[in-house]
Specification:
alpha/beta, Arc Repressor Mutant, subunit A, D-Maltodextrin-Binding Protein, domain 2, two-stranded antiparallel ribbon, 10 helices, 13 strands
């Protein structure tokens, strides 16, 4: 019996909750997967699963073996990666935890990576709630905010501000707010993540300014907030990366761009107890490159917009001076 291979099957059966799912994943028959589990039971002389027609659950012995098997398999994977056996090509599955709207950013870009690496698989685990990476079986995650968990290794980090955005159709109907206080007279879309979610903070020449906006629509899912903004319902306050593609396409436009919000830290992290496999490193580096590219493009577009505004102001000032009557 291939003990390591059978332990790997056991772990995946528990993680997927299904013999058939593991069979499809490994291109085996369901009987072959069940046979490897049975061989483990015979080898250790214990029963590993309670099986019913509706449910598959571990016995106490199965739970114990699972806890012992995971670090062994992680260690073997680390050895293979460290000795370069996987360095020639990145193969296997990488589970990446991302926020709901950040997933839209990656979905449009990951096919380029996967097309160049046929043996690589990427699974996006999408949630705006951050859980335990080990329990969620994540190899890599994009986190927003300060990282307080000392068990995570931060491999890449950057900052990006929140931005106030609206659809052009909303601006046409209701106009553009000139200063943060103007938001009190606009329809706002609030991402409800707790108390004071309707308090938006902007940086002004006088210092930070907080505005409690009228929440015409609230949602605890940032995807719903983004969709409401895209159809022209109101003004939303979202992270720049989440709306980058909409800004580039013109689906959304920035408002109050002269009053930036406080920058929010973003990080790519992985569990410290896991070796960074070549396939995980490849995905991480790809995400990092895409983030840097889009942030650079948006910064350039913002600089060009500011330059156009300054030029227009200068032309208007020149015109006003040239139209003054000559003094006698």
């Amino acid at each position: 019996m291939d003990l390591l291979g059978a332990l790997g099957v056991l772990v995946r059966v528990v993680e997927t909750g299904s013999f058939s799912a593991v069979a499809r994943e490994r291109d085996l028959s369901q009987a072959a997967v069940a046979r490897q589990v049975s061989q483990l039971e015979e080898h250790f002389g214990v029963r590993l699963f309670h099986r019913t027609t509706r449910k598959l659950s571990l016995t106490d012995d199965g739970q114990m073996l699972l806890g012992l098997a995971r670090p062994v398999l992680d260690g073997v994977e680390g050895l293979e990666a460290a000795l370069g056996r996987q360095s020639a090509s990145a193969v296997g599955l990488v589970r990446v935890g991302v926020t709901v709207t950040a997933s839209r950013f990656l979905v449009q870009r990951l096919p380029t990576l996967l097309a160049g690496h046929p043996g690589l698989k990427v699974e996006l685990v999408i949630s705006d709630r951050f859980g335990d990476m080990i329990e969620d079986r994540l190899d890599l995650a994009m986190r927003v905010g300060e990282i307080a968990d000392s068990s995570l290794v931060i491999r890449r980090s950057w900052t990006a501000e929140r931005v106030a955005v609206a659809a052009p159709s909303y601006i046409e109907r209701h106009g553009t707010p000139s200063v943060p206080a103007d938001l009190e007279r606009h329809t706002c879309i609030v991402h409800d993540v707790g108390s004071d979610s309707d308090v938006w903070t902007f940086v002004t020449p006088e210092g930070p300014q907080q505005v409690r906006v009228p929440a015409g629509f609230l949602a605890n899912d940032s995807r719903a907030v983004l969709q409401a903004a895209e159809i022209g319902y109101g003004i939303a306050f979202l992270r720049l990366l989440e709306v980058s593609d909409d800004l580039r396409s013109g689906t959304l436009v920035r408002v109050l761009s002269d009053f930036p919000a406080t920058s929010v830290p973003h990080s790519l992290v992985y569990p410290s107890r896991r070796h960074l496999a070549p396939r995980t490193r490849l995905v991480m580096d790809f995400i990092w490159e895409q983030v840097q590219q889009i942030l650079a493009e948006l910064a350039t577009a913002s600089d060009e917009g500011a330059l156009r505004t300054r030029r227009a102001d200068a032309r208007a000032l020149t015109h006003s001076h040239s139209s003054l009557p000559e003094r006698l």
